[in-house]
């Protein structure tokens, strides 16, 4: 039945829209009240969606004007308005709009800015919830907040009320020695006023200890797990019923002793051989000797390269003694490093020379591409251009400006001429290349030989 009525109304409204959209001849039926139909549609979102669906099927374009949000108003009352801490109050109210109450809506209720619970409005917009007041303040704010779900045509609203909270203040005192030797037991004494039974949480050095106390109590804290130095002690006693929570702080210094470590070794050690190393630790705590960053096992590591390294003696941490170290700089000589040294130098020289040759060859291609493409170069002309590529490579390395075919030979030479040791030789090489590239002149062997001699003077 619920679907029949919307369908019927939707059909009637669509017929009316179709009649207005495509007028027909005079009708004897009375003109319907369009305002009543519009109000009926606006009050039922499901009906409006159904009308839009039928209009789309009939090919009728309806301009939908966005609906103006509907304002809401929420009221809040709290009973009683005065409560003992830990007690309960009842929060109630009504959620309304200009069109009437809002049923079946969620209302969030906050106690002292913290969400406490949700309540749902009934058919006439009323809501109610019981709240436990565990806040120890003279005045506590209760707030009811309505936030509509996405897609609902309502605006949010809120209301507040104040509750007077009655409670007793409490104090907490800590007592601890100013200094404790690392490894000994630290005893912390607690005193409450008034003496009530409740849990006290003590934090020191990242550790937490909980004790049930009434009046006075003591907590023993092992210091071996603490770090030497000043340690802050904090205590928190939870609120219980009409008694408010309490906090206290104190500090203690954890004192550690430093062992004496001595280390003696020759200034030069040979890789692969035992070393005459002497060391001592007072008192006799565990210690480890490191050479080149690794534990010493009776001989200098054979895979260590020749060079300077740290010889380090490091003691273990053992309360009341902190970790300490002694170090000495030594030179390790590894004969195996010198065997491949000459071969490595030769390999490096070959690689550098090969890399230079490849760069000069790439630069020659740049120089060659700058010449007219239609020119047919002789062997002597190509040698002149290769000579120019060598010269430009040398000057490019010095100046940091690499040659590009965007420059003419003479333009690039002008940029780097100040880096040439013999500028006359540079002009001779550039002139030789320009004649080879742009004129039928073929460089003679004598001119090329002079050019190569000039290259050594750049």
How would you state the average pLDDT, rounded?
A: 84
* Share in helix: 25-40%
Shape: flat
Distance N to C terminus: 105 Å
Tally of individual domains: 5
Question: How many strands appear in the DSSP assignment?
Answer: 25
Low-pLDDT stretches are: none
Strand proportion, as a percent range, falls in 25-35%
Radius of gyration from CA coordinates: 48 Å
Main beta sheet strand tally, sense and closure: 5 strands, antiparallel
Number of helices: 8
Class from helix and strand fractions: alpha+beta
How would you describe the overall organization of this protein?
By secondary structure, the protein is an alpha+beta fold. It contains 8 helices and 25 strands. It folds into 5 domains: about 5-60; about 70-165, Immunoglobulin-like (Sandwich), CATH 2.60.40.10; about 170-255, Sandwich (Immunoglobulin-like), CATH 2.60.40; about 260-335, Sandwich (Immunoglobulin-like), CATH 2.60.40; about 340-455, no CATH class. It is about 30% helix and about 35% strand. The strands form 6 sheets. Strands 1, 2, 4, 5 and 8 form a 5-stranded antiparallel β-sheet that branches. The chain has a 5-stranded mixed β-sheet with strand order 3-10-9-6-7, with no helix packed on it. Strands 12-18-17-14-15 form a 5-stranded mixed β-sheet, with no helix packed on it. Helix 5 (about 380-400) crosses helix 7 (about 425-440) and helix 5 (about 380-400) runs parallel beside helix 8. The longest helix has 30 residues, at about 340-370.
């Amino acid at each position: 039945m619920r679907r029949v009525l919307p369908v019927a109304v939707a059909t009637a409204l669509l017929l009316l829209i179709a009649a207005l959209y495509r007028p027909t001849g005079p009708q004897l039926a009375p003109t319907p009240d369009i305002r009543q139909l519009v109000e009926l549609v606006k009050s039922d979102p499901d009906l409006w969606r159904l009308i839009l669906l039928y209009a789309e099927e009939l090919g009728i374009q309806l301009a939908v004007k966005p609906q103006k949000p509907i304002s809401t108003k929420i009221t809040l009352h709290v009973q009683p308005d005065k409560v003992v801490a830990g007690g309960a109050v009842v929060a109630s109210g009504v959620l309304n709009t200009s069109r009437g109450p809002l049923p079946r809506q969620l209302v969030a209720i906050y106690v002292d800015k913290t969400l406490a619970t949700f309540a749902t409005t009934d058919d006439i917009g009323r809501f109610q919830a019981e709240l436990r007041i565990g806040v120890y303040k003279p005045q506590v704010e209760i707030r009811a907040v309505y936030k509509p779900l996405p897609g609902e045509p309502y605006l949010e609203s809120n209301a507040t009320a104040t509750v007077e909270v009655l409670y007793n203040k409490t104090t907490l005192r800590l007592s601890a020695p100013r200094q404790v030797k690392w490894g000994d037991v630290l005893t912390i004494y607690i005193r409450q006023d008034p003496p009530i039974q409740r849990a006290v949480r003590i934090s020191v050095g990242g550790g937490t200890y909980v004790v049930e106390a009434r009046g006075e109590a003591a907590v023993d804290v092992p210091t071996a797990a603490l770090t030497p130095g000043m340690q802050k002690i904090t205590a928190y006693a939870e609120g219980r019923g009409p008694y408010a929570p309490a906090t206290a702080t104190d500090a203690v210094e954890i004192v550690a002793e430093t062992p004496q470590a001595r280390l003696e070794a020759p200034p030069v050690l040979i890789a692969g051989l035992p070393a005459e190393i002497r060391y001592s630790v007072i008192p006799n705590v565990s210690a480890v000797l490191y050479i080149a960053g690794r534990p010493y096992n009776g001989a200098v590591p054979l895979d260590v390269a020749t060079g300077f390294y740290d010889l380090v003696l490091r003691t273990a941490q053992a309360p009341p003694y902190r970790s300490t170290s002694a170090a000495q700089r030594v030179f390790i000589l590894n004969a195996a490093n010198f065997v491949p040294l000459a071969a490595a130098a030769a390999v490096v020289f070959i690689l550098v020379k090969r890399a230079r040759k490849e760069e000069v060859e790439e630069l020659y291609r740049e120089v060659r591409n700058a010449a007219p493409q239609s020119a047919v170069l002789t062997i002597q002309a190509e040698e002149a251009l290769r000579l120019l590529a060598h010269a430009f490579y040398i000057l490019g390395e010095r100046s940091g400006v690499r040659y590009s075919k965007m420059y003419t030979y003479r333009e690039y030479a002008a940029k780097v001429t100040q880096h040439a040791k013999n500028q006359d030789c540079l002009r001779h090489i550039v002139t030789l290349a320009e004649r080879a590239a742009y004129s039928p002149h073929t460089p003679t062997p004598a001119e090329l030989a002079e050019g190569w001699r000039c290259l050594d003077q750049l």
